[in-house]
Amino acid sequence: MDRRNRTAGWLALVALVMVSLSFAAVPFYRWFCQVTGFGGTTAVSEVAPSEVLDQTIRIRFDASKERDMPWVFKPVQRVMEIRIGETGLAFYEATNTADHPVAGQASYNVTPDQAGGYFTKIECFCFTEQVLQPGQTVQMPVTFYVDPEIARDREAKFIPEITLSYTFHQIPLPEAEASLAPAAPKPVN
């Protein structure tokens, strides 16, 4: 009987560790991607680097939205050429075509993947949710730079172009906005 209790105890411990690891996986993966740029995840900084190189790199801007998102979403400028280390400022434009307020959150990606760890955002509309009123159009900024360390990376230094892509996803309205929104009409049978 003592052996069965010990085995049951070990199995319970293994199960507890597995459940704990499953909850830790998401924040760990997010941290790993931000640190390494894995999967095109960008870095975030509060200030631009002090070093600006003479070497330039082309930045392309891409925009998409989830299937039923009632917005028009596009980059204001499709291509920009900046010096590596220089702070860039780009704008994306969104228009709510619905007859009610719509909240959205942007997810982002950088390609090629090797550039993700070197593409650094200082400010971005993607850091917060966006709420647009019916018919409202806004221009949303992203301030960024390409880290000069890219020029010292054996593989990444040959990247001529980086594409910054955003996809907007509809999210539930924040409580303050939802209380002001008119109730959706009930279907007629």
Give the termini separation: 65 Å
Strand order of the largest sheet: 1-7-9-5-3
Label the overall shape.
Answer: flat
CATH homology group of the largest domain: Ctag/Cox11
Q: Any overview of this molecule?
A:
With 189 residues, this protein is α+β, with helices and mostly antiparallel strands. The chain folds into two domains: 1-36; 39-179, Ctag/Cox11 (Ctag/Cox11 (Pfam 04442), Sandwich), CATH 2.60.370.10. Helices cover 22% and strands 38% of the residues. It is built from two helices and ten strands. The chain has helices at 2-36, 175-180, and strands at residues 43-44, 56-65, 71-75, 79-83, 88-96, 102-111, 119-124, 130-132, 137-146, 161-171. The strands form two sheets. Strands 1-7-9-5-3 form a five-stranded mixed sheet. Strands 4-2-10-6-8 form a five-stranded mixed sheet, with no helix packed on it.
Explain briefly what this protein structure is:
This protein is an alpha+beta fold and 189 residues long. The chain has helices at residues 2-36, 175-180; strands at 43-44, 56-65, 71-75, 79-83, 88-96, 102-111, 119-124, 130-132, 137-146, 161-171. The chain has two domains: 1-36; 39-179, Sandwich (Ctag/Cox11 (Pfam 04442)).
